[in-house]
Amino acid sequence: MPSPFHPTNWSKACASWIHEIHIAFDPPTPVDLGSGGLLRLMRWSTPRVATLVILSFTIHCTRPPTSLPSSRTGSRNGAMAPEAQAYVEEGVASWYGGNDDGFAGRPTASGEIFDPEQNTCAHRTLPLGSFVEVENLENHKRTVLRVNDRGPFIKGRILDLSKRGAQDLGFLGQGTSRIRLRSVDAMGLPTALDPAGNQADPFVVQVASLSDPKNIEALTRELENTFGVVTLQNAITRNGRSVKRVRVGTYTTRQDAEQAAEQIAKLLKDRGVEPFITRQR
């Protein structure tokens, strides 16, 4: 049996009400609008106005709901910011924090101590403290991670996940996987990056990681002659070797950093150096 709240039943009910109103208010004789005064005019017009009101109500009740066009694409729990606003990147991810790599317990670029069991990751340029949703393109598992470190500093990789992150995405045993990441907020909804972060933590071009003091000094002097400020950052590699990261400039736009990286690559093209863009911190 159709529900009594079905739009068809509502329409029938409203039609019945209209019919009853006609019976209740229909005057016994036609009224001449030109005579009889205000009272007769009101008696003549009242049922007709009531009919129009109820008819309007009937149309409104039986009209199907209108679907408003949405500017959102995709969905996560029914809501999502426009995809075009989010930072999206696709490439190879690795993970760190295993028993033999020595990173557990060390300070990250953000200053906090690295815990392999937390949902964190390292990215070269995304603002520290920002969140990313990462999808494993091989099995389509997803997880949300917080950026608290810099890396990976290996050619061809875009993200270093904590051990927990790699476990959630199902590639702990294989070491690397192809992933897609996008910037999200703390609730996991896509969001744009804040340009103000480029002022607080500008881009730099990392040229090389060296351990020999003579090579560090020679490269620093050569770069200073052409590009000005060169900074050295202490670091420890996966195998426990102490190195200095040789870096050039401080750039508030990625475009300026990319131009500098191209110039450095041309200058050092015969030495196997492949500079890349990261952040000052």
Shape: globular
Structural class: alpha+beta
CATH architecture of the largest domain: Beta Barrel
Strand segment count:
10
CATH class of the largest domain: Mainly Beta
The radius of gyration over CA amounts to 34 Å
> How many structural domains can be distinguished in the coordinates?
3
Structure overview:
By secondary structure, the chain is an alpha+beta fold. The chain has 3 domains: 7-62; 83-184, Barwin-like endoglucanases, CATH 2.40.40.10; 198-279, Alpha-Beta Plaits, CATH 3.30.70. Helix content is 30%, strand content 25%. It has 6 helices and 10 strands, in the order H-H-E-E-E-E-E-H-E-H-E-H-E-E-H-E. It has helices spanning 7-25, 37-62, 163-169, 197-200, 213-227, 254-267; strands at 88-96, 120-122, 131-136, 142-149, 157-162, 176-184, 203-210, 230-236, 242-251, 276-279. The strands form 2 sheets. It has a 6-stranded mixed beta barrel with strand order 1-5-2-4-3-6. Strands 8-9-7-10 form a 4-stranded antiparallel sheet. A hairpin with a 5-residue loop joins strand 8 (230-236) and strand 9 (242-251). Helix 1 runs antiparallel to helix 2 (37-62). The chain is globular, with a radius of gyration of 34 Å. The two termini are 68 Å apart.
